[in-house]
Amino acid sequence: MSLSKSDSGSISTDRISDHCLVYDICLCPICQNILWKPVACKVCENAFCSKCITTWLYKQYRSRPICPFNCNYRERKCPSILLNLLSKLKVDCRYKSIGCENIICYEALERHEDECQYQMKQCKGCEKSILLKDLDDHENECDMIDVICCKCQYVYKQKEMKNHNQIRCLENIMERKMEEALKKQQQMFEQKLKLLEENYREKLSQDGRQINNHHSNYSGDNLCIHNRKHCSVIEIKQSTIRQQKRRHNAPFNPFIFYK
Ligand SMILES: [Zn+2]
Ligand SMILES: [Zn+2]
Ligand SMILES: [Zn+2]
Ligand SMILES: [Zn+2]
Ligand SMILES: [Zn+2]
């Protein structure tokens, strides 16, 4: 399918209605088409399609932008007299070759072409290109379109519609409810596990602090009261704590029972 030049952001002169006068100043000096979204050079006042001048300046690779007429380009609005001339133009729709017979005034062109029923759009199901005017009909029939059942929220292809009977629908509802319940249970279990782990760590660090403080509690005369037998009991407790701490640094697994 070949479309006319407004694809590239400008309108070729052969799309202008016969009875319209096309003045030279309505043409872009860069692309030689009808000016499209024009801007002008502040110095020489020549107008260009905004896309054309942007590309032009980009290709210059210079620190100072130079206009196609060799002046230091600074942008200004397109002169209103020129906009006025452009607004008098009547233009063929870019989809004329596919069947659109509309002739649209310059200013309404963009809106018409955005909505033109003769543009191709992709079907959401089979991804074939279809004329916009035929798209609704096609998608209503297209086997590959996704359909959502309003009862069970199940998504299936339109061609499987007849397989989706009441029994299938009920099965889906049950399946979903079970999945939801299972998910809820799992969440609760994970919360409990987290709490258990936090308590366990807190307990370990408390025990550790008590034992570390043990010897600093004895000084002078008190140290005699603190006899060897008492101390060895404490030492056994300390080594147990050290063991627990080593295990504690390993990944937490509540299913391993520590002796
Ligand atoms: Zn241009
Ligand atoms: Zn200039
Ligand atoms: Zn059209
Ligand atoms: Zn389709
Ligand atoms: Zn259903």
From TrEMBL:
InterPro entries linked: Znf_RING, Znf_RING/FYVE/PHD
Keyword Nucleus: no
Record-level Gene Ontology MF annotations: zinc ion binding
Domain of life, per lineage: Eukaryota
Residue stretches making up the RING-type domain: 28-68
SUPFAM superfamilies to which the protein is assigned, alphabetical: RING/U-box, TRAF domain-like
Metal-binding is among the record's keywords: yes
UniProt keywords, alphabetically: Coiled coil, Metal-binding, Zinc, Zinc-finger
Chain segments annotated as coiled-coil in the UniProt record: 167-206
PANTHER family cross-referenced by the UniProt entry: TNF RECEPTOR ASSOCIATED FACTOR (PTHR10131), TNF RECEPTOR-ASSOCIATED FACTOR 4 (PTHR10131:SF94)
The name this protein goes by in its record: RING-type domain-containing protein
Organism: Didymodactylos carnosus
